[in-house]
Specification:
- By secondary structure, the protein is an alpha+beta fold.
- It folds into two domains: 2-115, MutM-like, N-terminal (N-terminal domain of MutM-like DNA repair proteins); 129-248, Orthogonal Bundle (Helicase, Ruva Protein, domain 3), CATH 1.10.8.50.
- 21% of the residues lie in helices and 22% in strands.
- The protein has helices spanning 2-12, 112-115, 129-137, 144-147, 159-168, 183-197, and strands at 19-22, 37-43, 46-51, 55-60, 66-70, 84-89, 94-98, 102-107, 233-237, 244-248.
- α3 (129-137) crosses α6 and α5 (159-168) crosses α6.
- The chain is globular.
């Protein structure tokens, strides 16, 4: 999301909207045309697009959403027209949001209503590691694989990073938070991984960008561990319907 925000900021910030279309029923009559885009920022997996009229467009990709940038007159390539949820057009660029799971407009002074519940953002300049650790340890018996994925504890970790951070830390996703030896080190490692990938679309945790070589355990069920050769395992973790598949090496992550 930080890469999405950076690209949208570069294209839209400081530009006046010549056309704006919010294709959700609650906002169908809203017209943002004539307003200037002040900034586009990411907070965890949330995107905040701010306008000089004092409002903020809050969007979230969920699992299937995407933003695409197009030059005026160019054919849109992100999907069929019925999947478009937001169109923000300036003179140089048109930003199109497809399959966005959340689209809402709120006063910029009320952004906390959308993102105030989030824990410290791992990619924020003012990231507070101590606060992230405090939130994680507030529920010491919770499985660490669930805890680090909870955006209320620390914002920014997705399912891939969860699996990879825990592997690199030698920690089973099923281990209670209180039994993680150095939770500060785990949080620092998570921040490092996100920072290493912040400027590129690919998620690479091994340092090897070749297809099939980018992750240690994620998506590698049944394949040999890159460290010890043990078959990688996977299982659902968390309560339904929010359960997510987690991956781990039973030997490297006892």
């Amino acid at each position: 999301m930080h890469l999405v925000a950076r690209n949208l900021r570069a294209a839209l910030a400081g530009q006046v909207l010549v056309h704006a279309d919010l294709r959700v029923p609650a906002l169908a009559a809203v017209d943002l045309s004539g307003q200037t885009v002040v900034d586009v920022v990411a907070r965890g997996k949330h995107l905040l697009t701010r306008f000089d009229g004092g409002s903020t467009l809050h969007t979230h990709l969920r699992m299937e959403g995407a933003w695409h940038l197009h030059r005026p007159g160019a054919r849109w390539s992100g999907g069929p027209a019925h999947e478009v949820r937001v169109v923000l057009a300036t003179g140089p660029w048109t930003a199109v949001g497809y399959r966005l799971g959340v689209v809402e407009l709120l006063p910029s002074t009320a952004e906390h209503l959308a993102v105030g519940h989030l824990g410290p953002d791992l990619l924020a300049d003012d990231f507070d590691a101590a606060e992230a650790v405090r939130r994680l340890l507030a529920d010491p018996d919770r499985a660490v694989g669930e805890a680090v994925l909870d955006q209320r504890n620390l914002a920014g970790i997705g399912n891939l990073y969860k699996a990879e951070v825990l592997f690199l830390s030698g920690v089973s996703p099923w281990r209670p938070v209180a039994q993680v030896g150095d939770i500060f080190a785990l949080v620092r490692r998570a921040r490092h991984l996100l920072q290493a990938n912040a400027a590129r679309a690919a998620q690479v945790t091994t340092g090897d960008t070749r297809p099939g070589h980018t992750t240690w355990v994620y998506g590698r069920r049944g394949k040999p561990c890159r460290r010890c050769g043990t078959a990688i395992r996977s299982a659902d973790q968390g309560a339904a319907p929010a359960a997510r598949v987690t991956y781990w090496c039973p030997s490297c992550q006892p």
